[in-house]
Each structure stands twice: as structure tokens, then as C-alpha cells.
Amino acid sequence: DVKVTQSSRYLVKRTGEKVFLECVQDMDHENMFWYRQDPGLGLRLIYFSYDVKMKEKGDIPEGYSVSREKKERFSLILESASTNQTSMYLCASSIGQSRFFEQYFGPGTRLTVT
Amino acid sequence: LAKTTQPISMDSYEGQEVNITCSHNNIATNDYITWYQQFPSQGPRFIIQGYKTKVTNEVASLFIPADRKSSTLSLPRVSLSDTAVYYCLVGAEYGNKLVFGAGTILRVKS
To answer: Which residues of A86-97 are buried (b: 16+ CB within 10 A; e: fewer)?
Structure first.
């Protein structure tokens, strides 16, 4: 089974802090994704990566950056956390072009910024 | 950019077939349609994907009419364990505009 793990299930940070959310997948998937999920809005894509050191902006990249130095790890960085970034953050991965949308999700990190 | 619209919630009984429709009037030529299932405190789980006509796998069917402006996820003979939120996703492979619907809460009753 594909396993996608996220570094924390719950995280509380203060406004202005730099926040790192880590995601690791164990199935050698090429594509990795970061989403945020908010009530009534569904999931929104922040960034995705289709290869090491490659990244593409999603729908809502403002206030976020990402890093993919190794194939199995994709990090989401909040340079200066703000209260409007309080949300559930979900990481996902998929194998490659032919199965781009067959994404495997981690359990999520609920981030609260106070 | 395709905008997706789904019913907020649906109720069903065990053993019935459930059809959940997603509207995506502005779907682009390169867009695929994908459906996910999500249980509380878990990430979404892939169910099925299609481009046009009908796709069937071991858990669901996906019906897409010729104009592709909507799609219908069909769950045969639902059970209590199918109670979950179902999301449709419209987007192009390697595109950065992946549009999820707001989700449909399906409640299956005994």
C-alpha cells in the first residue's frame, strides 16, 4: 500500500512564525501535491511538483513556498504565518503522467495560527 | 477555469444505488474528471477517473455525457460504510488549475 505521511497531525503557531510542513511518500511517486482544505471550499491546490527540484504554482500559492530536494519528500513552507492560513493541509502523491489524478493523500495537518 | 457544483448532501438507505452529480459547465478540452471519497480525519481516497462516456471499476461507475458539462458518480448497493464526503475534481494533467467541488455529504441509513 502507498503510504503518505505528514510530520504532524496538529500544529499551533504564532503569527509571523516560519512554519515547515513535511510530507514523505514511500512509493517512488513522481508527483507530489500540497492542498489546503477549508469548510465549504473543498480542496485548493497550493503547489505541486512533478520531479525533484521542480515545482508549479497551484491556485493559491501566495504566502507559501515549497521545497523538493529528494523524490520522496515535499515540504510546504509558510514564511510568515498569518491567521488566514489556519487550515487543514493535505499532502498527496501520484505515480506519473498516466495516473496523475490517482492521488494518494496523507492524513492531513491541522494548522492553527494564533 | 472550470467551476464545479455538487449537491451539499444526500441521504440513502443500505442496498440502494446512489448517483451523485457534479456540474462543470466550463470544462476544458484537456480536463479530466476524477472523484474522491473522504472519511472524517482522513485524506481523500481516489475512486474513479474519466474523460468521456462511461468508466466502471470494482467500486463505482462514472457517467459523462457527450458535452462533458456534468458527470455522475454511481455507487451500486451502498452500505453504511459508504457514508462519507464525495468530491469531484476537474483539471488537466500537469495543469495547475485543479478545481475540486465543495463536496457532497452522503449519509447511508440502515
So the answer is: bbbbbbbbbbee
Identify the CA nearest to A113 among candidates A43, A38, A16: A16
Name every chain A residue with its beta carbon within 8 A of the beta carbon of B62: none
DSSP reduced 3-state for B77: coil
CB atoms A42 and B42 under 8 Å? no
How would you classify the pairing of strands B104-109 and B9-13? Answer: parallel
**Are A33 and A25 a contacting pair, CB within 8 Å?**
no
Q: What is the pLDDT of residues B31-80, one digit of tens each?
A: 999 999 999 989 999 999 999 999 999 999 999 999 999 999 999 999 99
- Whether A43 and B32 lie within 8 Å, measured CB to CB: no
C-alpha cell at A19: 512554519
Q: Indicate the burial class of B71 (C-beta count within 10 angstroms; 0-12, 13-18, 19 or more).
A: buried
- The three-point CA angle B11-B84-B13 to 5° equals 30
Residue to test with chain A: of B4, B34, B36, B46, most A Cβ within 10 A: B46
